[in-house]
Every structure is written in C-alpha cells, then in structure tokens.
C-alpha cells in the first residue's frame, strides 16, 4: 500500500464539469493522498473533458456519467459505479443547480418550478445518492457535500439556492443520524466564493470576491485546493469523530459582521 491520508481507499466524486470545478479540486487532493477514484460528470457533453481530467490525476481515476435528475438515470449510473468499485470508502457530492432567472432579482419572486428544480438537483440528489451509496460503503466511510453561507444568512440574489443549501445542511444532519449506526459519517464543507462554471455569469460575483478579500479575517479569498484539502480531511481517519457538521472553508468570512 502507498502512503497518504487516503492510501488504499476507494472514493467517488460527483459533479466534475471542468478543471475549475470544486469537485476536481477534491479529486486532485484525494488523489495526491493516495486514493483510487471515480469522477462523475453530468452527461455526454462533458465526457471527453472529464476523461482527460481523470487521466491527468496522479493516482488511478476513472470517469463515469451520473445525472442526478431522475431515479432511473441514477440507478443506471450506480450500476456502472458498483461494477467498477464494489466497495467505497468516501464520496464527495459537489452538485447544484437553479434556473438562472432564480438567481437574479428577488427571492420573493421564486417560482414553484424554480423552487422544485433547485431543491431536486441541489438537495434531494444528496439523499438519493446516500441511499444508493450507503450499501456499498465500508465501515468508517465518509460522505461530504458542498454548501455555502447563503444557506444560513441572506446573500443577495442567492435566493432559492440559499433555501436549498439550508435544506442540504439539514439533510446532512439527518443523514448523519441515520447512517451513524452503520459507521458512516456525513458532513458539509461551506466554501467561500470561488470562480467556477457555477459562478460564471452571476451578476456581481466580482463584488462577492471583493467583499471576501477585504472583510474576511484572512483578508483573501479561498482557492478550490483549500476546499479540496478540507474535504480530504473529512474523508480521512483524522475526522473519524466528526459527523453532521458544517466546516467553513471561507477565510473566516462567516464569523464576521460589518
Ligand atoms: P461547477 O459548475 O464546476 O460544479 C457544479 C456541478 O453540478 C457541475 O459539474 C454540473 O455538471 C453538476 N450538475 C448540475 N446539474 C446536474 C445534474 N442534473 N446531474 C449531475 N450533475 C449536475 O461549480 P462549483 O462551484 O464547483 O460547484 C460545486 C458545488 O460547490 C455546488 O454544490 C456549489 O453550490 C458549491 N459551492 C460553490 C461555491 C462557489 O463560489 N463556486 C461556493 C460554495 C459552494
Ligand atoms: O452555489 C453556488 C452557485 C450554484 C449555481 C450556479 C448557477 C449559475 C448558472 C446554481 N445554479 C446555477 N444555474 C445557472 O444557470 N455558489 C455558492 C456560487 C454563487 O452563486 C451566487 C452567489 C455565489 C457565491 C449567486 C448569487 C449570489 C452569490
């Protein structure tokens, strides 16, 4: 067996779109710590790029499609996953989506369809994955999802995604309670703003970065690699006593007022 915090461990990372994805930073960090990995991507459109990203990792990594928008698609993806990795030690959920229109203007204008879509893709997908992954996971296994401060406090325009992140963080606690007796842990990392595909085209994302840079205790923004490292920690034996928690990786911004 090699060395590293995740040496000899098999993991899976959901939500790789490109090299800037937080999911890919998690994969890179886990791979550097000796993990064997499956990277999953939403659909055919992303296949070639994610296969190249998997091949570029230091460890062994495979790329498989996994669309979380229906039970049928998820079941099909899980069958392929179970074939490649019959046992898993950790899983990272790094998926969110809301219709663009819901992230503009006021929360008050949230539509029924927009609310349901955001919660289905960003929140229910964690539950749906936990149901299917738990039977494959070894004792001591770890599940980590990505959240944002907008789930706990108002961030203008984050809107329905904030409500979905609040539900996600609550789901982390309920899943931790249900899966604890099986020796599985469930946690979230709450990341500060990072320029990724999901940040592209968000009006005044630059302002978000500027506020982080000037007002966080560390007076800087965070990098995806820092989120990846914290995620590896939560997946590792070092975090064996931690479950149902939200770990901020935001240069301390969450603890400030004014
Ligand atoms: P990203 O666009 O790289 O990742 C989002 C992923 O969600 C993409 O890979 C996309 O394909 C996937 N996805 C969307 N719909 C899907 C579906 N139906 N099936 C499967 N996958 C689907 O952007 P990111 O910033 O790396 O986002 C990853 C996570 O990090 C999200 O949960 C996001 O809310 C969270 N987050 C991001 C930031 C930030 O500022 N970038 C901060 C805190 C938390
Ligand atoms: O979770 C996120 C973004 C998630 C996201 C992004 C998009 C953009 C493209 C979900 N759905 C979509 N749909 C799209 O069509 N973040 C934490 C990044 C983010 O998004 C914001 C932010 C921050 C920070 C939106 C408004 C205000 C702040």
User: How many domains?
Assistant: 1
What gyration radius follows from the Cα positions, in whole Å?
A: 17 Å
| Order of secondary-structure elements | EHEHEHEHEHEHHE
CATH architecture: 3-Layer(aba) Sandwich
Roughly how much helix do the residues carry, as a percent range? 25-40%
Query: What's the CATH H-level homologous superfamily?
Result: NAD(P)-binding Rossmann-like Domain
The tally of strands reads 7
Distance between the termini: 50 Å
Q: Can you describe what's shown?
A:
The longest helix is centred in the middle third of the chain and has 22 residues, at 112-133. The chain is built from 7 helices and 7 strands. The protein has a 7-stranded parallel β-sheet with strand order 3-2-1-4-5-6-7, with helices on both faces. The protein has 258 residues and is α/β, with parallel strands linked by helices. The chain has a single domain (10-252), classed as NAD(P)-binding Rossmann-like Domain (Rossmann fold, 3-Layer(aba) Sandwich), CATH 3.40.50.720. It has helices at residues 22-32, 44-55, 71-84, 112-133, 159-179, 205-215, 224-235; strands spanning 10-14, 36-41, 61-65, 88-93, 137-147, 185-191, 246-249. It is globular. The protein binds nicotinamide-adenine-dinucleotide and ligand 0WE. Residues 96-98, 100, 103, 148, 155, 157-158, 161, 193, 198-199, 202, 208 line the site of ligand 0WE.
């Amino acid at each position: 067996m090699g060395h590293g915090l995740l040496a000899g461990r098999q993991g899976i990372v959901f939500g790789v779109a490109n090299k800037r994805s937080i999911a890919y930073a998690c994969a890179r960090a886990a791979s550097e710590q000796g993990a064997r990995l499956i990277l999953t991507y939403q659909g055919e459109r992303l296949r070639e790029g994610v296969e190249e990203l998997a091949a570029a990792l230091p460890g062994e990594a495979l790329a498989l499609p996994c669309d979380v928008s229906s039970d049928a698609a998820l079941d099909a993806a899980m069958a392929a996953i179970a074939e490649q990795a019959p046992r898993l030690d950790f899983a990272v959920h790094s998926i969110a989506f809301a219709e663009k229109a819901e992230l503009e203007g006021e929360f008050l204008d949230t539509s029924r369809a927009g609310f349901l879509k955001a919660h289905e893709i960003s929140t229910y997908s964690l539950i749906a994955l936990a149901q299917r992954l738990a039977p494959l996971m070894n004792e001591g296994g770890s599940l980590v999802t990505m959240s944002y401060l907008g789930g706990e406090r108002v961030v203008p325009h984050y809107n329905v995604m904030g409500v979905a992140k609040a539900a996600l963080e609550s789901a982390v606690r309920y899943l931790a309670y249900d899966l604890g007796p099986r020796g599985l842990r469930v946690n979230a990392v709450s990341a500060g703003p990072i320029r990724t595909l999901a940040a592209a085209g968000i009006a005044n994302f630059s302002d978000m970065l500027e506020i982080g840079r000037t007002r966080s205790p560390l007076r800087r923004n965070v990098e995806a690699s820092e989120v990846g490292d914290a995620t590896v920690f939560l997946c590792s034996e070092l975090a064996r006593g931690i479950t149902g928690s939200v770990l901020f990786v935001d240069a301390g911004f969450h603890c400030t007022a004014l």
